[in-house]
Amino acid sequence: MLSNILKFFLYKIEPEKAHKLSLVLINKYFAKMPLSSNHLDKNLYQKIFNLSFDNPVGLAAGFDKNAEIYNQVDKFGFGFTEIGTITPKPQEGNLKPRVFRLIQDKAIINRLGFPNEGMNEITKKMKKNIPKGICGVNIGPNKENATSIDDYLLCFDQFFELASYIVINISSPNTPKLRSLHNNEKITELIDAIKKRRAEKKSNVPIILKVSPDIEEDKIEGICNILLEKSIDGVILTNTTIRNKSSLSSEHRIQDGGLSGEPLNEISNKIIQKFYLRLGSSIPIIGAGGVSSGATAYEKIKSGASLLQLYTALIYEGPYVAKKINKELSNLIKLNGYNNISEVIGINCK
Fold first, then answer.
1. 342 catalytically annotated
2. Which of 22, 164, 172, 342 is catalytic?
3. Which of 76, 179, 255, 316 has a C-alpha 20 to 30 A away from that of 3?
């Protein structure tokens, strides 16, 4: 009831102001409320990246841009979280307005452009408040250095000891030229540089690449071959899409920026399947895009995802959406005769 009232008022507020308010409420109020049950379904447990995940549902980067609530999200049923995207220098991002709710479509269009406080400020926060659970850090370049490997290395140096894993974000449509890094030569160069730096630091932090859903079909096999050759630890599929807006109902469908939420679900699943057919179980996939229920989570896992991330569903379904998804997902696994989520991964590809 309280969650529904909150959603009603948040819908009346400009999206970025509502987002800031939601961070305050999570910190000051919701996180202090006891959950109705702390029961953990054993059939959702997995060990991936040498990390123990009590459940597969994570909070995607973009919600906790500046490391404000990463130690609270587990109280809402999330199995892990991801901070960022973080750039070396602070930046404001693109001009406002830059976030649009498409309520009829259960979607969002954003053209934020990596607004964040910068790596130095966020590092200070994390050192004062060490992550208690699985907390990834998503890194990217400043706008003026969109294709700069040096920006990724600067951020890696800051966070490799604090993060449970590091995400190399080359997938946002809102930083000009960033998606040009999907070129095979550039991906190879970037992964080589990050892995070399990790070796120099004598670190074992997992390195994960975040890929665009708008990738051309003929590039998928080449990227998969690179990921296998370079033994990347994982891949996130996918970020927001700049396509498929014409079929939407909301007046905001004409806005520039990346589309997330329900309309991205099937697009993401198809990309996941194409990657899984080439990667198999060698490289775990984190599936993102349109996860809002146990059913949509189950389909993503069947498509090849080992873990999941959501953001938009948190806005439309409320703060306890992860808890709801986990309960429904656990029941689906049992109803279909499986003992553990790991048995379901990629069955649509077999």
1. no
2. 172
3. 255
